Amino acid sequence: MRRQPPSTGSSPRSGSPTLVVAVVSVALIGLWAFVMANYYGIELEHSRTRAAEELADVEIRLSHTCVEHRTRLDAVAAFVAAAGFQELTESEFNAFARGLTRGRDEVRNVSVAPEGVQRLVYPLEGNESVVGHDLLEDERPEVRSEVKRAIETGRTVSSGPYPLRQGGHGLVIRQAVSRNGEFWGLVALTLDTAAALDAAGLSARIGEFNIGVRSEGEEEPLLGNEQAFSSEAVVREVRVFDRKWELSAYPDGGFRTVIPATFWVIFWLTLVTALITILLVYMVATRQTSLHARLQRRTKDLSEQLRERARTEETLKSEHALLESISQTSPVGIIAMDRQGSVSYANAYTARVLRVPQEDLIHRRFDALRLQLETHDDHQPEPTTLPFREVMEKGCPMFDRRYQVRHGDKVRVISVNAAPIPDSDEAAPVLPVDEDPNEAVPVDHPVGVVQIIKDITDQVESEEHVKRALREKDVLLREIHHRVKNNLNIITSLLSLQQSRIQDAEGAVAAFSDIRNRVHALAQLHQMLYQSENLEVIDLADYIRDAALTLQHNYDPHGLVSVEFSLQAVPSDMDHAIPAGLIFTELFTNALEHGMPEHDDGAIRVALDKDEDDTVTLEVADNGNGIVAESQRPQSTSLGLELVHALTQQLHGNLDVETSDGTRFRLTFALKTR
Prior knowledge:
Layout: H1 16-82, H2 90-101, E1 107-114, E2 120-122, H3 141-153, E3 157-163, E4 169-179, E5 182-192, H4 193-199, E6 205-206, E7 209-215, E8 234-240, E9 243-251, H5 261-285, H6 292-328, E10 333-338, E11 343-346, H7 348-354, H8 358-361, E12 373-375, H9 387-394, E13 398-407, E14 410-421, E15 448-455, H10 457-499, H11 505-531, E16 537-539, H12 540-555, E17 562-567, E18 571-573, H13 574-594, E19 603-610, E20 615-622, H14 635-650, E21 654-658, E22 663-670
Parallel strand pairs: 17-19
Antiparallel strand pairs: 1-2, 1-5, 3-4, 4-5, 6-7, 7-9, 8-9, 10-11, 10-15, 12-13, 13-14, 14-15, 16-18, 19-20, 20-22, 21-22
Helix pairs in contact: 1-2, 1-5, 10-11, 11-12, 11-13, 12-13, 13-14
């Protein structure tokens, strides 16, 4: 057999080093580009997700504000219907609207428009231009269309935002009011646009994002600038009453500018690593030795092992970093102890709750930390009841064991859940979701205990607050029923007294007028009570002023009598407010009916004062002809004065009468606040 001569040409293997380098280079660069592109996309999507979460919070606040104002509009419609539609007076409407809009600066005005013509507007100051305006004949077609839509649908319809007739920029919500199934009129709330957005907690910038707000079909934003609605911005549609609005979020310079610096660190590190790896592969592959083939295979195997090891290490590091990040940012404390009770791991939350530096916890026995632990009933726990010892002895998990941790004068309540750590050879028992966790199979030989600690001080305080609120609610309900019974007894007594003095039809009419005023006085006291922040105390000064204006409107509609007020704020409970309010009603009515002079310059002075000893002085004086004799008094007046004397005795007070220059009644009584 003849031996083949050695080939003088190049071996097919001579090109393999370059091919290997090329293949490895393309693979590494492609892998690097793929990983970096995906990582870049993840960071960009994470930034847009944060923007969407901010917009979701903004939408919740804006929707909550809309519900509040729609509720106020429903209250106005209900008030108009309850007031008897055409019988609604300006003073009653102003009193209601003032209480409805108190503390709400975004409400420009509240209006009532019978048959579409705005008759009642509160506040009148600054809104004079809209009084008497016919909404059905408004010069703006969109306003006429939205008014008709409100009438036809019976729903709440919004207009704007647009420039208002009275000046400024606002949003109007309207609702039709029907009587006996027929259209009666409209009620409306006018909201200042900027103030309404501010009340909803909206600002041009929230966190790292610029916020934009605009209404449906409008290019000009109500909040923010045009950049906030660029093509890259995160936009979310929301419902504002019956319209669609758009919310947007956009960071300065775009979403690409918020990519964290760690991305670029990883970018350059991986690029340099890839280049070095390519260079090393090229150097190894191009070595010309007699063992080229064997070394090439070994190098390839070694390189593959190194890459696999590097990937494994990176995976382990990534998983370890992720677990560490989850643990350190966890909203609960995580602490692990070995079977001797030494702390092997504790996260930052644990250190904050226990008020112990995190580095001082590691490798120390838990019972050597000298923590001031107490049970929830202020007793020192027995050593055997502590979570670690109990779990180690029984091998079963323990749930929601509560302790108090003292740090000086401050006491925090913590909840502890603990579970045994099984040996590596013993699998941890997995309990189905629908089974009781207290029935878990015990661990025979636990090597330690992991405990979850959570500060539940706020939760405990909230539970106590709810319990107190429930108790206060029961007391308040009993008090309300007691007051209703007392008020019904007062009305029954007044009717009985009035009935015994009716002699003819004219006297019956006068009697019903008097009893109406007295019942209205009781109703007005309770109206002021439920409109106040404190359901047990009202201000006598506010009541007296409102009651005097109502009585003057009934008895002196032309304003012939001048009324002068000198009132000091006097907070009073209902036990004092009811008799004092009825006394004032009788005295003021008596002055309007029987205390005026024959000429037209009648005047009444009302004064209310309280000294340092909580002694209240109420004075009603007129410049009339003086009090008449008992035999000459009208029967209703005589009954009224008898009622005044009876109520004065109920207050344990004193009533002085002077008739030297007109008539002056002075009531003094001691006020005992609760």
